[in-house]
Amino acid sequence: MSPAPLANRLLTRLQHYVVFADDERAAIETACAGPPLAVRQRRDLIREGDRPRGVNLIVDGWAFRYKTLEDGRRQIIAFHLPGDLCDVHGYILREMDHSVGALTPVRYVEIPRDQIEALAALGPRVNQALWWDALTGAAIQREWTVNLGQRDALERLSHLFCELIFRLRVVGMVDGARCEIPLTQTDLAEATGMTPVHVNRMVQELRSRNLIRWKGREFEALDLDGLCDVAMFNPAYLHLDHEGRHLDANG
């Protein structure tokens, strides 16, 4: 699958919910066309306590949402992939209650509050697509809670890999079952509530079962169905089955 143009990955993803009319597509593309900002790897896009000015759209690279305890321990609570809006309604907050950092070098566009509100005012298709996007983010968060509370270590890691593959596939960043996953074992540990050593053991177990191949950033699910079985993965929570077909534009 060829990747979507960088600036259009949000549009590509939103159209999994509903098919837009030409003017709606043009308005979304215009909102995404602001000057791209760049942040270096392991630097923050926005920090806890900052006042949000708009909504950050990840154009290229991987970002993550996290909380840090006073003693320095960190919990990763979400990954943001190309085409993701970081907290689509977060601009209404007086200050951020979490931080968003760059896992890799990241390019992003800051969409001002008035542009997001103008998009929502275009009509029910765009407005509901933005809400579906926000609700999908909440559904992912619920699934991560289930991961931490109920799945064992192997299931937990397998589930995260499955989720990333399905999410990357939406924006054309998976070739067969191969993709880039630029995460360290420490990143995975902070996202799954394990130690890096335990993550390493689980990665080796998945390799020994011939379920995955992972070298550097290059990841391949050798048996995606088998990986999903280990994880008890059901992609329904990602809401990729054209939720808004009843609102589709005719052209």
From TrEMBL:
Matches recorded under InterPro entries: cNMP-bd_dom, cNMP-bd_dom_sf, HTH_CRP, RmlC-like_jellyroll, WH-like_DNA-bd_sf, WH_DNA-bd_sf
GO molecular function: DNA binding
Sequence ranges assigned to domain HTH crp-type in this UniProt record: 151-225
A Pfam family: HTH_Crp_2
Highest taxon, organism lineage: Bacteria
GO BP terms, alphabetized: regulation of DNA-templated transcription
Sorted UniProt keywords: DNA-binding, Transcription, Transcription regulation
Name assigned to this protein: Cyclic nucleotide-binding protein
Organism: Sphingomonas taxi
